[in-house]
UniProtKB/TrEMBL annotation:
One of its GO terms (molecular function) is diguanylate cyclase activity. It comes from Hydrocarboniphaga effusa AP103. This is diguanylate cyclase. Residues 239-375 form the GGDEF domain. The keyword Membrane applies. It comes from the Bacteria. It is an enzyme of class 2 (transferase). The keyword Membrane applies. Its EC number is 2.7.7.65. Keywords: Membrane, Transmembrane, Transmembrane helix.
Length: 413
């Protein structure tokens, strides 16, 4: 896994009182998760039924074989919801709501299996069915790691054999282990491992789609999704948010003097340094392109934003970056931000524009400073900059158009 692929704390975000947060919110385009593994699971269960029926026919008789196939079909009914719930849990990152339904299904399923076995005059051992349910369902439900999965499966298997040995002797125990549990384990465990791998791959690709490839920070898409949630929550709870736009000063000259690769390293090192400033749940730090970064701070009012902004600018500007090529570079950064309690119509784009204007002012005044404006209409004090200067909230002058402040600003609006 890409080591840089770390979208930081709070990714995916979680905050007390937030509505159940689904990865669908951050998965680009939404979409169904794990379609391949669902098909694979059904194929495995079908194969299990077939093999179970054939082997019982081989060692017993048609009536018993039919019983096993029927009881396996009932097993299917109780296992599939378990798997579906497990996949849903994996997809959303939340425990399934229908866990009670699942347990009820397991109980009813076991009862039906017992009846089917009674009908075929066979001894009934619920553990073998529970093992089937476990190997197909429990792994996806509990997100067990493969080592744990094998350990629990081995324990269940051991208990099953032991019970069969006590009740029916060695012959029956071996037969049961080889045929019933063995088949379950042979098919169920790899099926779950495959689900696990697919799940990992999907998580990785979801992360990749939301990360900036150079720095591993969030990209614009991830920022938009997190900010959307943060703004909604802040508005409901009347909490302040701060959106800061950061831009390295004279970064072009780093590229020109040392080359593009060194420029890339500088961006990575600066990104690493910035991470510590967005550590709380729902904070998000993103690179939008070039040398431009954005931080969304949840629950940070204008005074705190001013202090943090100053700290950030000082931190970046006073720590020489040691580059892999042996050079040390001392970048400087400028920060423009807006802060306040959002209202119903507040959108990230609007906050980015406000922050951009503050940044423009900082750059205009020779840079390497932080300037925070208040969101118009929001409660609180107004502007805190590098030297805690207080001024009025930004009001567009008559005739001023809401456009990107620099002609070379490539950020799409
Ligand atoms: N190394 C590197 N450079 C990039 C990347 N993307 C954009 N750039 C360069 O970053 C520079 C951005 O410069 P600007 O922000 O426009 O200007 P600046 O020199 O930083 O000047 P001010 O922002 O006005 O202080 C340009 O030279 C781009 O070519 C990248 O991924 N890697």
């Amino acid at each position: 896994m890409n080591e840089r692929l770390n979208l930081g704390n709070g990714f995916p975000p979680s905050a007390k009182g937030l509505p159940a947060f689904s990865e669908d919110v951050i998965r680009p385009g939404g979409g169904k998760a794990l379609p391949t593994s669902t098909a694979f699971l059904f194929a495995c269960v079908g194969l299990l039924l077939l093999l179970g029926g054939i082997t019982e026919l081989w060692v017993s008789n048609a009536k018993v074989a039919l019983s096993l196939t029927l009881s396996s079909a009932v097993g299917l009914v109780m296992v599939i919801p378990g798997c579906a719930a497990g996949m849903a849990a994996n997809r959303t990152g939340n425990p399934p709501d229908d866990i009670v339904t699942l347990i009820a299904l397991l109980v009813v399923g076991c009862g039906l299996l017992a009846m089917a076995d009674q009908w075929a005059q066979r001894s009934y051992n619920p553990l073998s069915y529970l093992l089937t349910a476990f190997v197909f369902g429990a792994f996806t439900l509990t997100r067990l790691r493969p080592a744990h999965l094998f350990a629990v499966a081995a324990l269940l298997l051991g208990a099953d054999v032991f019970l069969a040995y006590i009740r029916h002797g060695a012959g029956q125990a071996i037969q049961q282990t080889l045929l019933s549990d063995g088949l379950c384990a042979l098919i169920g465990v790899p099926a779950n491992l495959r689900l696990w791998r697919l799940d990992q791959q999907q998580r990785l690709s979801t992360l990749e789609a939301l990360a900036d490839p150079l720095t591993g920070l969030a990209n614009r898409r991830a920022l938009e999704r997190i900010a959307e949630i943060g703004l909604r929550y802040a508005q409901r709870e009347r909490r302040a948010v701060t959106v800061a736009v950061l831009d390295l000063d004279k970064f072009k000259s780093v590229n020109d003097l040392h080359g593009h690769d060194v420029g890339d390293s500088v961006l990575q090192l600066v990104a690493d340094g910035l991470r510590q400033f967005a550590q709380r749940p729902l904070d998000c730090i993103a690179r939008l392109g070039g040398d431009e970064f954005v931080i969304f701070w949840f629950d940070l009012d204008i005074e705190q934003a001013g202090r943090l902004g100053r700290e950030l600018v000082t931190s970046v500007g006073t720590r020489p970056l040691r580059l892999p090529v042996g050079t040390a570079i001392q970048p400087k950064i400028s920060l423009g931000a807006c802060s306040g309690v959002p209202h119903g119509a507040t959108r990230l784009d609007e906050l980015l524009r406000l922050a951009d204007r503050a940044l423009y002012q900082v750059k205009h005044e020779s840079g390497n400073r932080a300037l925070v404006r208040s969101i118009p209409g929001s409660i609180g004090r107004v502007v805190i900059g590098h030297n805690f200067r207080i001024s009025r909230p930004y009001e567009p002058r008559q005739g001023e158009v809401a456009k990107a402040p620099r002609s070379d600003d490539a950020r799409p609006r």
